[in-house]
Each structure stands twice: as C-alpha cells, then as structure tokens.
Amino acid sequence: xxxxxxxxxxxxxxxxxxxxxxLSEYDVTISxxxxxxxxPGKEREGVATISNGGGSKNYxxxxxGRFTISQDTAKNMMYxxxxxxxxxxxxxxxCAASPVGVESGxxxxxxxxxxxxxxxxxxxxxxx
Length: 128
Known about the structure:
Helices cover about 0% and strands about 45% of the residues. It has strands at about 5, 10, 15-25, 30-40, 45-50, 55-60, 65-70, 75-80, 90-100, 115-120, 120-125.
C-alpha cells in the first residue's frame, strides 16, 4: 500500500487548507488511518485518526473544532480539512495507515509507531 499526500501550502493565519491522501489500492487489512505532523524541532505527533468506514474519529486537543478528518472509501481517499489555521500548525503533515483496529476505548491507536504505511509528507506553512 502506498500513500500520497497533497494539498499543502502556505497560508496566512485564519486561513484554510484541505489535505488529501490517496491510497494506491484498497487493502482489507487496513483498519485505521490517521494524519500526523512533525513541527520543526519536535517529534512526530498525532493530529487526527479515523477508523475504516469513518465510525470512529479522534483529534488532538490542539486541533479540535478546527480540523476535520474524513474519508471516501470508494475513491481510496482520506482528507483533513484545516480551518482557522495558526502559525503553530506549521509542520510537515503525513498520512498513515494501520492494520491495527479500533481499541477497546473506541478509538484508533494514537502513536505513530502503530502505523505501518506512511506517505512522504506535505508541508503546511502558516504565517502570522
């Protein structure tokens, strides 16, 4: 399975961007997908996760109410709508997929180590 992100760019604070992630093929073993980001000088961190089919979604506290994760399984696509962007959202954004399903708490795993497939990343830069 190969993942390719697109949609990154440069925007001013308060602006919006929509990231897209395409999967090279449908894989029945993929149970969860997510968006992660790596800010300068920081470790990679979770932004949002979604279970295959969209029944379970989870967000980092820092993006709740501003970002929305979604997927179109018919097109093998996942999206991240980012609104009210802030300079601290500046990062390299990655999409990822995992064969590990929703846990007993009702959400996909949050840690990047649980995700087996990764895209190459797309840069998002938010200026003040």
